[in-house]
Specification:
single chain; 63 residues; mainly alpha; 3 helices
Length: 63
């Protein structure tokens, strides 16, 4: 909360840091939403940024 109160943005980076390009759509959604909900529950803030672990992603992930 302090980080947000100081004006910093918090982004999502997944729940377990997997290789996202190898996951099913359901697993990707779970990874993102688990962390999204945790950030929201703790801070009241909804993260709008996401950086996939290792910077890897697939075209299907972008949909």
């Amino acid at each position: 909360r302090e980080i947000i109160n100081r004006g910093h943005e918090i982004g999502n980076h997944s729940a377990t840091h997997p290789e996202m390009g190898n996951l099913s759509a359901a697993a990707i959604e779970s990874e993102i939403m688990t962390t999204h909900n945790t950030i929201k529950d703790v801070t009241g803030f909804e993260a709008k940024l996401f950086r996939p672990p290792f910077g890897h992603y697939s075209q299907s992930m972008l949909s």
